[in-house]
Amino acid sequence: MNVRIYIATTEGPVEVQRITKEDPDVRSVVCVNGTAKALPISRDYDAFVKEPTGVIQRSFGHPAYRMDVSAPITSGNSWQLGAFVAHAFHAEDRLAGPEDNVDNALWLTGELDRDLNVRPVDHIKDKLIASRDLFTKMREDDVRLFCFIPGGPGLVPEDEFLEELTIDGDLLRLESIVDMHRIVRRFDLNDPYPIEEEEDTEDDDDLDEEGVIDLYKQQDTDAAPIKDHSLLKALLLAGAIIAMLVGLYLQFEDNIRALRANGLQLGISELRAHPDTGCNAPEKLPLVRDGNSFPSSALDGLCALEITLNNRGTPTYMWAFAQRIEDGHFLLADRESLVEPKRQKGLIGWRIVLPKRLNKSIDYRLVALASNAPLGDAINRMLRRSLSEEKPDWQTLKAQLEEEDITVLSALHSLEK
Amino acid sequence: MGSEELLLEAGKSEELAAALHTLSETEVNGEPKYTPAICREIGKMIVCRTYATPLLELCHLIAAASQLSGPKGRYEYFFWDSGLARSGSFYAYCKQNLIARPTDSLSLNQQALTLHLNDTNFAIQFGRMPVLSALLEFLLTSIGYSELDETLQAVTRKIPKKQEVSACANELSRQLYAYLKDHLPTAQSQRKYRQILAYCENDVSTITDPLILDFWQDASRETDKSSDFKTFESVTLGFIRLIQAVEGAEDLAALRHTASIGLDRDAGEIDPNMLSQTLDTVQETLSPLLKLAEEPMAQIKFLNKLEAQNLEHLLNAGTLALRLPLSILRCNVFAKPQARLTQALRAKASPKDLQAIIAAGPEETYQDRQIAYQNLIAQIQRSLYASLYALSQNRRREAISLLLKLAPGIDFTPLGTHLIDREIGDNVVTLQQSTIADHFMTILKDENEVGADIAEVMSQAETAYKGMSRKGFKEAAHTQSDRSEAYIEGANLLFEISQDIEAYLERLEGLPLAGNGWQAQFSHDRATFSTQFSHIYGSPS
Amino acid sequence: MIDPSDKEAEALFIALDTLDQISRPDPDLPRKIGFNELYAYANDPDHSPASDLIAALSTSLDLRRDLKRLLDKQALAHLPRVAAASSGEVTEREGDGFTLRLKPSKAQEDQVYLLIQALDRDDSPRLLFVEDEDATLHRLVIDDFLEGEAQILLNLQDGILKALRNVKSSVILR
Predict the structure, then answer these.
(1) Where is the domain boundary, B184, B216, B240?
(2) pLDDT digits (tens, 9 = 90+) for B293-340
(3) ipTM surpassing 0.85, yes or no?
(4) Which long-range contacts (CB under 8 A, 24 or more apart) does A49-52 make?
(5) Chain C residues near residue A36 by CB distance under 8 angstroms
(6) Is position A224 within any domain?
(7) Which of A20, A25, A38 sits opposite C103 (nearest CB)?
């Protein structure tokens, strides 16, 4: 079935209604609703189409097109990603017209360079807000909408904002991309990359390794854009946050994945000795996240740490632990959740008691896990594997956990002497 | 004159009125290109036929503009690519173009652009250029571009000689004369003059409010559709103009008699320039309103459009408003329903609709109108206080004279102590005036320094400024220093207007009224006007 | 008492009364097209003409003559009448360093591309006027003449396209 393409603008989504080849003697134009009024971006579109500057002719072999859109696009270059993808679908006769029924639609914003890398653009949040009505309409019509935005620091809106817009990773998904590969693969498009560049992309199995950040990454079985309303799959959607390294503050690691679809959020609380009761009845002090980082904790008077997960979505199985960076030793949290597994939601905390007589600053990785299956077996397997290693490697551990369909959130935190 | 000819004549004057109306409506980026005073100047030039000299100036200016333009001869650029018709815009345009394309045929200083002809020089003041450019716009709109451009070839294609410019001006003069001959409603005005004069038996001293009403009741019922006296407003204005014309003529006679300045009445013609000057004198009372629309006062909205319109009847009558107070009031109140009737008639409204308009009567009563005038005084007062605040914030010494004008009765003695010379040691040091002003500005709000009265006035001024949201008052006062001249001049004009309104209201207070009250007078007049409207606009039955 | 034959009083009255009549702000007055408006129409691509200007241009020969004179005087280029193509319709014009070509759109059959190109000139025309055989002047804003060329889409039913195709019309670039 054909796919509908929307170009995101701050004035609202603009539908690509039709692409038609024009006489090579004329310049490519963008018109509104089939009228004779060429939009001011037509010159830029022509440069985007025609070689040597343009990429459309190189990928699809024709130098002049007319693109009809549903509303004006006034300025900038953020229409380029949407226009390119529309051409890719048009080349395979899969671009939906205004009257066509569709199951899938794409909403895109981004600038493209000569190598089809997606460049950052401004006003992503404004464009999302301006598309609120479209999102509602798509949901009502049961159309799955994929939103593609450029990847990069500061470009992905925060969880609360996405939740507010009902971006749930199921019918409405948001992904940030750094090039065209993900779209090509997901929608089974012919590769638009020039032949000489093809070799470079062959090894590109793991897109995350290429720097593609998938906010709502589905499992391989869930990759195809099909109609699927399973709540279970919604739970499996994963997201990522780019870590910011900030001195001794807690640092999010690259590509931390979060169950944003149902609002899973990592937090840390200090449990500090009470002036009267000491560590028997400690005071709980949640660390306030400053952007993507937490402040480090002073060891003096610290009884324990509590890792929290705030699950504002569907109940799921969760647990947490810590790993010392220096030697890879584990510090396990209370194991009630493993022994008596149950699906939980809301704010859940796991206490990690710190070794006594710590006399130096120490860095930990705090890890939270979530899955739609009980976690006990997987944890046992992880611990068993680790026993044979002198210093368990975190990346390996993480990969193994993820292989078992477990969502892993982790953060580095410092305890300061 | 038959009614068909009369209609034809009315149509001719409409064409001229439309051309002048277009001139006043001409805009550049949403702002009027020509100020009301300039448009009035053009109107006066036309009716007094004093355009010979301006046309000569204009021809020189067009010759100069043709030398200024990129490709020579494109004088249009100067007039239509230079923005609003203000002396400053023309100066900037000339300077910029002379820097870009210096030419021996032109030179300029701050005041004037000088055209160096082969045989003489001719300086055109920048201050004259707005009027000259309006004159050209009027000529092109009324006579047409093709015809005029053909005539102007003599001065635009090359640097002309003096006599070529004169010849061109004469030709323009001839073309304008021919146009006006066909379009000035002189005969109509002459007929009106004679009719009104006959009604008051050649004695303008007999003109009173009842006489005007009687005349209207008689004249407006003439069946001739083109009657000059259908509306009460036009009748009143006709009588006012008659009195003004007769008094003006008497002044001229007295001048001739006493001054022996060589004025000669030849064949009954009046010298156009003398006519123009007399017109200025007669219409002086309107000038505060026109001046408020001029630079720099136009930067500040002292009066809005409606307020200015509300003042027109009163100011148009000048001192005669005090002689014919009821007629002015009747115009104010009954002109609007009559205008609605005229419009409805043009829109071919049914007799029933017309009757409904008559039955609805005026929107306001005489008392309402007097309250409206009092509100206008209050508004003017607020503007004056706000101007005082703006001037004091910008440390302009004129604030002190405005303060003295606004509150003449308050205790100024505390201020006096700051005016006396100050002694420093044995030497008496006289403070310079500017220093005194500066000093005042700092202490004006300080009750301990200037006393409670002055501090109170200044506090009112601040409240007035902050309470106004009009252009010129809504910005932070201390940032308005470049508008100080506008506040100063505007305040003087507002005082004049305010005094005129106060005198008029005072006159109304002492007026003997039908039924001893305004309510009774209004009811009486409303009945009179309704009856008369029915006669004029009612169905033939 | 005033002598009714007092010419000075009469002249003053006539002047005052005439000034009142010609300065009255009467909303019912027929509107006259000011030269300022005609000039903007001829020169300013941002000027959107009022309907009464368009109406006056279609009915008033004098106004059309004025516009034509203004255009002739300030034109960048005149592209005179040309010999017709085999179909009897003009598809290409050339003159004063500019060419105009008409290319039917493949994408939209009821639309035609007008291609304007400067051959050896640096000037950028911003308005195009076509004068019909009956002296009607059609106006087209050229809003993106860049790097020596512009492309404008026209509808088949546009008057200006019909005029451009007419062998008896001439074109002025401004």
Answers:
(1) B184
(2) 887 888 888 988 888 888 888 888 888 999 999 999 999 999 999 999
(3) yes
(4) none
(5) 108, 111, 153-155, 158
(6) no
(7) A25
- Report the candidate in C71, C172, C65 with the shortest Cα–Cα distance to residue C128: C172
Q: Which of A362-366, B26-30, B460-464, C88-92 is predicted with the least confidence, judged by mean pLDDT?
A: A362-366
Task: Answer yes or no: is B502 within a domain.
Answer: yes
| Euclidean distance between CA atoms A304 and A293, whole angstroms | 19
DSSP secondary structure string, A36-54?
Answer: S-B-TTHHHHHHHHSTTT-
Alpha helices in A255-348 (DSSP H): 336-339
- For B275, the enclosing helix (H) or strand (E) is helix B272-282
Half-sphere exposure of A167 (CA within 13 A, CB side): 28
Q: Do B189 and C25 touch (CB under 8 A)?
A: no
Selection from B441, B505, B490, B456 nearest residue B288 by Cα: B490
Interface contact flag, C8 B145, Cβ < 8 Å:
no
Residues A297 and A182 in one domain: no
Q: Partners for B (CB, 8 Å, 3+ pairs)?
A: C
A23:C152 CB<8 A: no
The residue segments making up the domain with residue A79 are 3-211
Taking alpha carbons only, the member of B541, B462, B504, B536 closest to residue B231 is B536
d(CA C37, CA C12): 35
- At residue C1, the pLDDT reads 65
For position A205, what pLDDT does the model report?
35
3-state secondary structure of B424: strand
Dihedral of the CA atoms A82, A87, A90, A92 (nearest 10)?
Answer: -110
How are strands ordered across the β-sheet holding A14-21?
A: A29-32, A65-69, A14-21, A3-7, A104-108, A144-150, A172-177
SS3 category, C34: coil
Enter the tokens of residue B491: 């305040």
Rounded-to-integer distance, Cα C171 and Cα C94, Å: 10
Measured CA to CA in angstroms, residue B387 lies from A369, B130, B381 at distances of 71, 28, 10
What are the Cα distances from residue C120, in Å, to B71, B374, C103, C151, C171? 20, 71, 22, 18, 18
Instruction: Report how far apart, in Å, the C-alpha atoms of B1 and of each of B146, B191, B228 are.
Output: 35, 10, 13
Which amino acid, residue A359? Answer: N
Residues A260, A383: one domain? yes
Instruction: Let me know: does A109 contact A77? Beta carbons within 8 Å.
Output: no
Cα of A44 to nearest chain C Cα, Å: 12
Beta-bridge partner residues of A268 = A307
State the total domains in chain A. 2
pLDDT tens per residue across span A8-17: 999 999 999 9
Distance between CA A41 and CA A32 in Å, rounded? 12
Burial class of residue B514 (count of CB atoms within 10 Å of its CB; 0-12, 13-18, 19+): middle
Residue C29 in this model has a pLDDT that exceeds 80? no
Q: Does residue A259 belong to any structural domain of this protein?
A: yes
Which sequence spans correspond to the domains of chain C? 31-74, 76-173
pLDDT band at B419 (very low <50, low <70, confident <90, very high): low
**CATH for A184:** 3.30.230
Instruction: Dump the DSSP string for A222-270.
Output: G-S------HHHHHH-BEEE-----TTS-EEPTTEEE-GGGTEEEEEEE
Longest dimension (CA), chain A: 87
Say if A14 falls within a structural domain.
Answer: yes
Task: Please give, rounded to a whole number of angstroms, the shortest distance from the CA of A23 to a CA of chain C.
Answer: 6
Q: Which residue of chain C has the CA closest to A22?
A: C106
pLDDT in the model for residue C84: 56
C147 and chain A in contact, CB less than 8 A = no
Could you tell me if residue A33 is inside a domain? yes
Contact indicator for A325, A412 with CB cutoff of 8 Å: yes
Domain range enclosing B37: 3-184
Taking phi over 0 as left and psi of -120 to 50 as alpha, with beta for the rest, C31 belongs to: beta
